[in-house]
Design brief:
The chain has 152 residues and is of the alpha+beta class. It is built from six helices and five strands. Strand 3 and strand 4 form a beta hairpin. The protein binds zinc ion (ZN) (3 copies). One zinc ion binds next to helix 6.
């Protein structure tokens, strides 16, 4: 992702935080920038390392987790539960409202694509799961496969 694109996304993230009545502090912004630059999922430890490279400042992993919590609450970052890594939301600069995120994970190159799935489809899935006396904590889906580039 180019620096211009990242600047645009950060500006939009600041706006949406302001609209939500919360503040994207410079540290929170740096963490989001780290993930935007990475363009792929990173663990909290990896984020702490990248943060140090980017800012030449040390940051405790506990603080990284705190800032990730904030970013997740505001749909700026998502957590992939299958590998405990974090990824910047792919729809920050979009004007549409944020959907329940679904992730397509390539098992070959580890690239992750965030797609929004039709709400009706998610509702139907949730219904059939609840029919089996199972309560869903999160409707987020993580689907493993092979991306287009790796299919060639
Ligand atoms: Zn998202
Ligand atoms: Zn979008
Ligand atoms: Zn791939």
């Amino acid at each position: 992702m180019s620096t211009i694109d990242i600047d645009k996304i950060i500006a939009q993230a600041e706006r949406s935080c302001r609209d939500n009545g919360v503040r994207l502090t410079s540290k929170r912004k740096q963490i989001l920038e780290v993930l935007l630059h990475a363009g792929a999922p990173r663990s909290a430890y990896e984020i702490a390392d990248l943060y140090r490279q980017q800012t030449t400042e040390k940051i405790p992993v506990m603080s990284v987790y705190r800032m990730l919590d904030f970013l997740m609450q505001n749909d700026l970052v998502h957590k992939l539960t299958s590998n405990n890594k974090f990824i910047a939301c792919a729809h920050i600069a979009c004007s549409h409202s944020h959907q329940i995120p679904q992730f397509l994970i390539c098992d070959n190159c580890q690239q992750v694509r965030e797609i929004g799935v039709d709400e009706q489809l998610i509702n139907a899935l949730e219904e059939s799961i609840e029919d089996n006396q199972f309560h869903l904590n999160s409707p987020q889906l993580e689907l493993h496969g092979v991306c287009k580039a790796c299919q060639q």
